[in-house]
Amino acid sequence: MRSHQRDGGAADPAPIPSELYGELYTSLNPNLADVRVPLLSAGNWGGAGLHLRGNVEGYLAVGSTQKYLQISRAALWPRRLQRLS
User: Fold this and answer.
1) Residue 43 domain-assigned (yes or no)
2) Whole domain around residue 73: which residue ranges?
3) Which residue has the higher pLDDT, 3 or 39?
4) What 3 state SS string does the chain have?
5) Number of structural domains, the chain?
6) What pTM, to 2 d.p., does this model score?
7) 44-70: per-residue pLDDT in tens?
8) Which of the two residues, 71 and 75, has the higher pLDDT score?
């Protein structure tokens, strides 16, 4: 359950199937609300949507009072591919 979401994650477009979300998965997943160290989460709109979603959801769920979210609007791949050619 995602406590930072108003609906608790009920509207999640890619929920973890209940048969996969068992005791082992729960024990390996940290409670992000317990994280108290400073956090910098950096993502970009031009990257894969799954990674940006993780950046934002992680930022929202972390319990730290010192947290920063940086999102770039530029795509990373064209610049990286340009350097290689």
Assistant:
1) yes
2) 33-84
3) 39
4) CCCCCCCCCCCCCCCCCCCCCCHHHHHHCCCHHHCCCCEEEEEECCCCHHHHHHHHHHHHHCCCCCEEEEEECCCCHHHHHHHHC
5) 1
6) 0.61
7) 777 655 578 888 888 999 999 999 998
8) 71
Q: Which structure tokens are listed for 34?
A: 């317990």
Residue 74 to residue 76: CA distance in whole angstroms: 6
Amino acid at 28: L
Cβ 72 vs Cβ 19: under 8 Å: no
Predicted confidence at residue 44, as pLDDT, reads: 79
Report if residue 39 sits inside a domain: yes
The end-to-end CA distance of the chain, in Å, is 45
Separation of alpha carbons 22 and 68, rounded Å? 32
Residue 60, CB-side half-sphere exposure with 13 Å CA sphere: 13
Query: Which pair of tokens denotes residue 82?
Result: 């340009």
Spatial CA neighbour of 55 closest among 45, 64, 43, 65? 43
